[in-house]
Amino acid sequence: MRFAIFLILLTLLSIRTYSQHGDQQHYYWPEDTLVLKKLSWWQDQKFGLLMHWGTYSQWGVVESWSICPEDEDWCIRRGPYSADYFKYRRAYERLAETFNPVRFNPEKWAEAAANAGMKYMVFTTKHHDGFSMFDTKLTDYRITGPTCPFSGNPRANVTLEIFNAFREKDMGIGAYFSKPDWHCPDYWDPYFPPTDRNPNYSLKRYPEKWQRYKDFTYGQIRELLTDYGDVDILWLDGGWVQKCEDKALPDGRRQVNQDIDMPAMAAMARSLQPGILVVDRAVEGPDQNYLTPEQRIPEKPLAFPWETCMTMATSWSYVPGDTYKSSPELIHLLCKIVSRGGNLLLNIGPGPDGEWADEAYQRLEDIGSWMKINSEAIYNSRPIAPYEMQGSVYTSVGDKLYVIYLNTPGDTVRDLQINIPEGYAAVPELLGSSAELKYNVRAKGKAIDVTMSEKDALLFKTSPAFVFRFLKE
Hints:
By secondary structure, the chain is an alpha/beta fold. It has 2 domains: 376 residues, Alpha-Beta Barrel (TIM Barrel); 90 residues, Sandwich (Immunoglobulin-like). Strands 9-6-5-4-3-11-10 form a 7-stranded parallel sheet, sandwiched between helices. Strands 12-13-14-19-16 form a 5-stranded antiparallel sheet, with helices on one face. The chain starts with a helix and ends with a strand.
């Protein structure tokens, strides 16, 4: 039924306007029925895991960005090489020679994620620094390369191991892949010093170099979509690699036409993995199958597929002693995002030893405990008016309405006022409780007063959120 609704929406809503990073863009509904079917499946999953992991975890620095001259103002280089960019970059690249994550155990990660209620995962197969976390045959700058000490480990092809472990838990698989590659000589030519995140040579003067870079990029994506089992999502980062007009931007940065021929890339991907979702992040066009606001939640429900990607701690990649969001905050984020029609892709950065911080496991355990009782209000849900009111957010699944009260743990709540949309019976049920609720329907409208039993009030005192269910009249 939901797939049929998608096809109807396609005829009615071929293009939607949205705001991404303050710019007006358009959303283009896919025309491929297999992609639409996959998109409908993806929208039902609601909760996923993102992992940023690479050699940079050894320094505990922001992934890749410290080697880009353009980004030094917000990503300051530190350490003994910080005063000399070229020494710093050489030392950064030599991190491949000491990367040895001997505690790597993807089954442990997959079990923790599945127990938390996560339904899909996205892993950084390659970030902008160009270090491949898979057994590519197109460069030696890879985790299975001859200079990487972990290459001798039987589980050295970590992307394959991660995909297989999460697939065993029946989770969807997403491959994060960076379109720019700052290690590839056909993106940053060693003959020219890099000045920003763009290619450091003229693509018009050296079109053969850009063609070689395109061939290299297509080749690596072909490897990922051929040798690593079923892949549901190709999550492409580095939105400045796109077809555009060469010009100087108001903030002084360069916009450089880097036409990588996304229609051809998407077609290649779907010839290898029919129906795969292609997410060309922050690039307006038909190859952005869903939108990915970063570290923020849209203020209101959106009429197209979207996903907030957000860090569990403060950084995308591993930072020693990082500060983690509390479990109640994470549960509230999930509920708010779902009530506005989105998915939450929650990021964890593994450490250089191949392990997550203890805080990450604890947060996932807490989320899982809450989801075991309340997940029916999350999965397969769609937003419903009034969306958010009086400390509660609203979702619907089929003929059921869910009102999720976002509690402050420690507060004892017994009496609540709930506003019910038209068409639902004013008879509340509290998920996780067998006690009968006392309630009073107000004379005007569908507002009701609900009183929980003293036992339930004490029980839910420690809960980040509790959920009331209502049925259709």
